[in-house]
Amino acid sequence: MTGAMVRAPAPDARETTEAGRFLAHVRRERGLDFPGYRELHRWSVADLDGFWASVAGFFDVRFATPAERVLGRREMPGADWFPGARLNYAEHALRTTGPATAVTAYSQTRETVELTWDELRGQVARARVGLRRLGVGPGDRVVAYLPNVPETVVAFLATASLGAVWASCAPEFGPRSVVDRFAQVEPSVLLAVAGYRYGSKEIDRRAEIAAIRAGLPTVRHVVHVPYGPGELPGTTRWDDLLAEPGELTFDPVPFAQPLAVLFSSGTTGRPKAIVHGHGGILLEHLKNHGLSWDLRAGDRMLWFTTTAWMMWNALVSGLLVGASIVLVDGDPVHPDLGWQWRLAEATGATLMGASPGWLMACRKAGLRPAELDLSRLRQLGAAGSPLPAEGYRWVQEQFGPGVLLNVGSGGTDVCSGIVQGGPLQPVWEGEIAGPCLGVAATAFGADGREVVGELGELVITQPMPSMPVAFWGDADGSRYRDAYFGTYPGVWRHGDWVQFSEQGSCVVAGRSDATLNRGGVRLGTAEFYRVVEELPEVEDSLVVHLEDAAGGPGELLLFVVLRDGAALDDALRARIGKELRGALSPRHVPDTVLAVPAVPRNRTGKKLELPAKRILLGADPDAVAGRDSLADPAALDAFTALAARRSA
């Protein structure tokens, strides 16, 4: 480990970036001077009170009632942040005013929509009045079956302004998945669209909405957001919800008041209903967006996401730092693979988010985005899965040192990054720059001690404000404790397999519950994919290890999706084995290579090694993964058929 440095921090980063200005703030307010990122990070996790107080001061957090202290109870779980404080997330998202653009929305369903800051504030004020008219107050739940459109942002901020609780699902989810999520929080209001357009295909969701309404008996009102085909009978129209003007006010709420409920993917059991609080998300996203993504007033953030992914919450939080946000709904590669690059050019994006899979597809297709006018682009963010070293080199070849490639990894559980880059950190080929500020991330070995230079469990040893307030409905906290603290009491276990270097950079090797244990040696799945998916014949891949109960080496299965015109013959199997042996080790050579039509992924693009493995071991497919939670509901069929053949 430790790839080549592909980009050093810009020489003027301390003068021109938000992170550099934060260093000056800390020096001025606290008399502390840090020569570089590593020293700053060390302080950020050693002095939690000092660091998070500095974040609140630097970003001018408005406390309606000041906190008694920064951190009361420190133990995990149950750390008590800013006890006694009252504030409101929506107030900070809407404190910018004026005629500049706040939201730009691109869609395959309707024409482009733009809202200025004043228009956004006005619509939120009206939606707040409308929700109160429907009986929504502090603690009530408002849920949305909506795409990534301005109405969704307006409804979320109006909900937050009231101290009510938000949850959303993208409209491509089926009724079962939606009810599995929303029923847990017992909502009183549901917002929905009748349909939408995905690429060139019209999607009608009226039957699905009828089933969802039937499965949510606590819903008193359904609000129809006009989008796509047809009407929804027996609903309140969006225009009627916004019919009455009102003053834009914000109810101050306790720091830990629930802001939103995010749901785990639901691909390995019932989705966890993860509760995030106003203060935790506000402080964490101010820190992340400003100090890692270098966003500020006047910038523009473009990041394709659906409303079911935590990146939607992160996208909306671009408003916190005065940046405008670009919403995208529909097929992200329609009409072609390069459309998002052209959108970045058209919008003047300063931060653009990209999935590693899409970046690698652009590389394979020979796209040259640097030939577009992307002169405003300062950062290219990548998250959701590991980015191979070849992806780093391609971005560097395209953009040179003028664009920072910021690869990160985090998750719904903290609604932010745990490890990622930033303007004060170098970029190392094939590696994530290091832990985020305020995040005491490291790797634990099998004995529960820190390891460097070898794979281990990704853990967080100190509390951070955006750790969940709770799981909804988990009255005694037992599910919450078991999920994160059952392995290492008092230490957060995230569920990723990671290796940190001496310099602090890291490589995430996949989910630890899907890590391969072959002959006593643990192998990360991500390293397989980096090698196999470089082959021109292979479009996608998935690796599964079936352990031997007798203690033998077990069986290593590699599944590949072939490109059009390619065939999985003995020659290609041999070449796959040779590439894995040469690039990794003989232990990485699969026992069997099989072709499948598709790799199972959840709707955020993560490969589902564990559900595939459980099916191959004989589990009922419907018990291990709800089809509605899959990007391609038929993707597990090949594994089900193989399991049947193996057991016959």
UniProtKB/TrEMBL annotation:
Transmembrane segment boundaries: none
Keywords: ATP-binding, Ligase, Nucleotide-binding
Location of the AMP-binding enzyme C-terminal domain: 531-606
GO molecular function: acetoacetate-CoA ligase activity
Entries under Pfam families matching the protein: AMP-binding (PF00501), AMP-binding_C (PF13193)
InterPro entries named among the record's database cross-references: Acac_CoA_synth, AMP-bd_C, AMP-bd_C_sf, AMP-binding_CS, AMP-dep_synth/lig_dom, ANL_N_sf
PROSITE patterns with a match to the protein in the record: AMP_BINDING
Enzyme Commission number(s) from the entry: 6.2.1.16
Stretches assigned to the AMP-dependent synthetase/ligase domain: 93-463
Family from the record: Belongs to the ATP-dependent AMP-binding enzyme family.
Protein name: Acetoacetate--CoA ligase
Organism: Pseudonocardia aurantiaca
